[in-house]
């Protein structure tokens, strides 16, 4: 029999995946009664899963009303992408100064390479690994204030920013850029690497901005 923690984790993962796949549309209500029936459990683990989803920025809980899939505007995403670009570019420079080992990053990219973008579950895996790659880049900087700021920004929207239905060619291009970032890091080329990292991330910001026009 699954433990209570495992049940909560399963419910969390399933609802999160459905939100990312737009099976639960932004603004739609999540009924604890319906979900407890769907997962054949009491409302308690459902409530705990929803609490985690709220903490991670996927759900908004309104008193006396209920829980709803969070709605973020393109402007919200643009602003998040702008701040994220500067934070990660700084993290890259610090990593060059600290001469961090690139092996952990290479391992993440190897795992991303193995994902088949034609399979929805592997698209989700690619998304999670993509987020992990960038988060670990910030963690490696050793700057706790930078990491705290980044967490407040990105952990509230994590996979929502990294989830992409990339074509196989799009995945190849993304991975080539990631490998280039590691190449600059291995060479401790802070100036060119920071510039490349900035361009890599700012393109996402520009995409959100164009979508608003």
TrEMBL record:
Coiled coil: none annotated. One of its GO terms (molecular function) is DNA-binding transcription factor activity. Residues 5-72 form the HTH gntR-type domain. Pfam families: FCD (PF07729), GntR (PF00392). PANTHER family: TRANSCRIPTIONAL REGULATOR, GNTR FAMILY (PTHR43537), UXU OPERON TRANSCRIPTIONAL REGULATOR (PTHR43537:SF5). The gene is gntR_12. Keywords: DNA-binding, Transcription, Transcription regulation. PROSITE patterns: HTH_GNTR. The keyword Cell cycle does not apply. This is Putative D-xylose utilization operon transcriptional repressor. InterPro entries: GntR_C, TF_FadR/GntR_C, Tscrpt_reg_HTH_GntR, WH-like_DNA-bd_sf, WH_DNA-bd_sf.
């Amino acid at each position: 029999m699954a433990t209570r923690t495992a049940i909560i984790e399963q419910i969390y993962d399933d609802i999160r995946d459905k939100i990312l796949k737009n099976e639960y549309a932004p603004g739609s209500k999540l009924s604890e009664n319906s979900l407890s029936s769907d997962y054949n459990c009491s409302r308690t683990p459902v409530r705990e899963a929803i609490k985690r989803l709220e903490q991670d920025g996927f759900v908004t809980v309104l008193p006396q009303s209920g829980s709803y899939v969070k709605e973020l505007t393109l402007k919200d995403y643009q602003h998040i992408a702008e701040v994220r670009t500067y934070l990660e570019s700084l993290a890259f420079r610090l990593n060059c100064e600290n001469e961090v080992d690139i092996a952990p990053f290479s391992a993440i990219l190897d795992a991303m390479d193995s994902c088949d973008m034609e399979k929805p579950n592997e698209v989700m895996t690619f998304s999670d690994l993509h987020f992990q790659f960038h988060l670990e880049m910030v963690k490696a900087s050793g700057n706790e204030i930078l990491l705290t700021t980044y967490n407040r920004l990105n952990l509230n929207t994590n996979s929502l920013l990294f989830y992409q239905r990339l074509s196989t060619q799009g995945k190849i291009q993304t991975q080539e850029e990631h490998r280039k970032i590691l190449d600059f890091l291995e060479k401790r080329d802070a100036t060119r690497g920071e510039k490349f990292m900035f361009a890599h991330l700012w393109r996402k910001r520009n995409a959100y901005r164009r979508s608003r026009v």
